[in-house]
Amino acid sequence: MWPLRGNANNNDSGQAVPAPGLFQDVPAVPSTSAAPASPPPTIPASAQSAIPDEYTLDEPVWKTIWRDIVTIARNLRSVLIPVNWKFHGQAQALRNWDLWGPLVFMLVLAIVLSWGENNASQVFAMVFAEVALGAIVLTINVILLGGELVFFQAVCLLGYCLFPLVVAAVICASVSNKWLRSLVTLICLAWASVATVPFIGNAVPRGRKALAVYPVMLMYVSLAWLALVKS
Amino acid sequence: MQGAGPPGGYNPFGQQGPGQNPFGAYNVDTTAQFADEVVPAVPQAHAPQPHGFVPAQQGAWGAPPPQQGGFGPQHVALQFTDSTAPQFVSGSMARTDERQTLVHGGRSDDPASSSAAAMPFSAPFSPQDPAGGAAAGGAGGSSGPKEDYTKYPFYNVRRYREYFDVDTKDVLWRVSNSFIGVFRPNFMEVTMKNPDLYGPFWAATTLIFITAVAGNFASYIEWRKSAVTPSPPPSGTPSSSPPPPLVAPDGGSSSPPLSDALSGVGRLLLAAANNDLAQKQWFTDYTKLATSAAIFYGYIFIVGLLLFFVVKWFKGELKLVNVFCIYGYCLTIYVPVSIACVVPIDWLRWVLVMVATALSAGFLFMNFRATIYSAAPAKATLVLLAIVLAHIGLGLGLKLYFFSY
After folding, report:
1. Nearest CB to A208 within list B163, B168, B246
2. Is CB count within 10 Å lower at the N or C end of chain A?
3. Could you say which of A126, A143, A207 has the minimum Cβ distance to residue B283?
4. Residue B348 belongs to what domain range?
């Protein structure tokens, strides 16, 4: 399953413990070995810390899936909980990016927004296209403005930052009080912005932050509007 | 990049000491000039042109031009009388990368790029632009470290950074200048050296989103008005595409004003919302969304391309990116207009859209005038008239198709 994940193995996967904790800390120093391939199991585990000693070919499927779930949860936490969202912290946390989380959030957002619409398939297609293409275009925009980003890392972050909008869409779909809807949408929009803007804004040279942040806000505001007017 | 030297990048300054270097005097002197130039961070267009700077740079490609022989003794004297000469020499060793940037990336006729290349990793500075008060709009080309984008292959995104090399203040200046372009037509000359595609792309994209959102909001206002006073459905009556049986159950599913929803059945689907704030549809008219994308992107791209080919036909001097830049920025005025057009007063919408169209058509006219007149003096009036007419056509189309909401 690794093509959808970042290929920097973190250190704690070197332990033989079956499942790392859901909210275990991301290792401060990422391993330098970029090779996703697992070594043969004959290598003793104590000899090195950089090379994971687990042999992922014959492990149970559930274990593989659980590892991805843990990665998604950890990335979600590091992106969305604005405790330490300095640029380096977030970038380091996203060093083992994955695209499963963004895929899930894009799908959920598109499904929620198109639920019960007259032409649901069109709404679904439009939302999904906007979100997926938007992440790609925004990342390219940052790179074109002179920022240095890891492409899939930025796509991963932009996808994870859809989570507040998913929350807003779900709440707006179930609540009909318009003040509550507006409040929830605003809060979720602010949450998504707080999670995204430092990462995007610090990736580009000084004096261009607004240019990089503006398209992100354009996309989020339009999605929030979609959520707000959802019946 | 004129005077492209040996492809391997022979750097006469690089590996050999100043003693063996036949152009050691140039070496030392260039470094000294750099040390002088870097500190004040002033582009050399305005700096007092150092006497040895440009010739030294030309001389870097091999044998110095013969007429520069007079410089030799002078600089050798400078080298030996100046007590800081060893410092310059060591500095020259340390600055190899900078000079390579200069030699490979800079152009000797482009003072901005060479001065920017001499100070990589420095904070963006704002040089005084030759255009005086219009400083911000054209300054983007020389702000920040400049790298040679042509070193990337064509499929690398970074190759096209050249067209996104603007700062926030540049974009703000360009947007504001596109509003008042009729009265101060210096957009073309300011952005001639550094056109960007950031503005055109995001102006068109913003317009697509804004017209959709504003159209949705305006239809909500309209629906509220008609919900308060139930009236026969206005204008878009038999749009026939919305199937009424689909609307009615959805509209009346959870809403008390069932009758209102039913009265709105025949209207546009946009306005046929159900209950309270909840608008049933957002981008209901999907063909409209696709059309708006086609219009905004297509206007910039196709009309710009046509104009470019026409100017090229007359053998005029015009870059395609400049055309896209101007056409893109001339659309920015429609962003506030499309927001203001939410107000449901028809004559106000007409006035706003027509004023915006006049302003941006004037912006196009004034900025293309010099170029087209120099390219084709005989046919210039015709071409300019075509530009203005095409733009007025765009304005009319927008009013009738989008801004009526």
Report:
1. B168
2. N
3. A126
4. 166-236+279-405
In a domain, B268, yes or no: no
Quote the tokens at residue A143.
Answer: 């790179």
Residue-level pLDDT, tens digit, chain B, 405 residues: 444 444 444 444 444 444 444 443 344 333 334 434 333 433 444 444 444 343 333 433 434 444 443 343 444 333 333 444 333 333 333 333 433 333 343 333 333 333 333 333 333 333 333 343 444 444 444 444 566 777 788 878 888 888 888 899 999 999 999 998 888 888 888 888 889 999 999 999 999 999 888 888 887 787 777 767 654 444 443 444 444 444 344 443 444 444 444 343 334 333 334 444 444 444 455 667 788 889 999 999 999 999 999 999 988 888 899 999 999 999 999 999 999 988 888 899 999 999 999 999 999 999 998 888 888 888 889 999 999 999 999 999 988 888 776
CB burial of residue B339 (10 Å; 0-12, 13-18, 19+): middle
> Do B228 and B89 lie in a common domain?
no
Nearest CB among A119, A126, A215 relative to B202 is that of: A215
The rounded distance, in Å, linking the Cα atoms of B141 and B115 is: 11
Interface A-B: count of C-beta contacts within 8 A: 97
Number of domains in chain B: 2
Domain boundaries, chain A: 2-93, 99-228
> Given an 8 Å threshold on Cβ–Cβ distance, is B202 in contact with A218?
yes
End-to-end Cα spacing for chain B: 51
Put simply, the answer to whether B281 touches A117 (Cβ < 8 Å) is yes
* Nearest residue in chain B measured CA to CA from A172: B278
DSSP designation for B12: T
